[in-house]
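Field: sequence (string)
Field: structure_tokens (string)

Example rows 1 and 2, in order.
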Amino acid sequence: MLSDLELSRRTGISRPTISGKRTKFFQSGLLTREAYIDWQKICCELMSFYHVPIRHGHDREDLAKVYQAFRRVGAPLFTYMQPGEIFGAFLSTGYPELKSRLDQELRNLSSQGLITERPMVVIMPLNEIKSTKIDYAPMVADMLGIGREI
């Protein structure tokens, strides 16, 4: 994770503002800290991006249930939640395990009436794209519509 000073330099936002916002994000659970792991050393083969539209009229508990379901499918990289949808990315060790976990969680969410259509999932094999380190900041900035270079 970039330091507050580095974020300030890259974005032009003052360091105290970044510090305050980051603290609030951690306190509210919007951001979490997790250990950095070399996924290829533990045989990670797939990276999946997902977008889940959630049924109209949901509450925060419903959003949390969908979020937790996708955390159980694979090792989460990032998740962005907003009213009516969740999108993010996770890593998986292989396709058969990914498919069985995803199908199980989607059946559970459908039976609870939380989702009405199958989410969009894009699966990329890490070996084919020869990735050892990926900088997600530009992709996330583009998804969020942020105009500054990160």
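Row 2 begins here:
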Amino acid sequence: MPDGCDRCPGRDDGVDADDDGVPNGCDICPGGDDNVDSDGDGVPDACELLACQADLNANGSVDFEDLAVLLANFDAADPSRDEGDINGDGLIEIADLALLLSVFEETCP
């Protein structure tokens, strides 16, 4: 519903099914939090393909270079996704390694 604080011009602001603060009419990633974008690429983390999240050096594929980045930063304090925090929990640990290995040799479109 348009008002002085219209977050979604031309669309209904009244419904936000996933409670991410973004009305359904403008929701980029329904079911996920549009406000979390760890790599700053404009695509919410919940909408990125796992292979793209695990492509730490952004060369288009998950490979040994990405594995090396993750291992070099293993247990780092306050890491970024680019350093290997694939699941975004603020740690680089076995869970991130398992995610990377689950998409090893996949490409990121």
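free_text_note (row 2): The longest helix spans residues 64-72.
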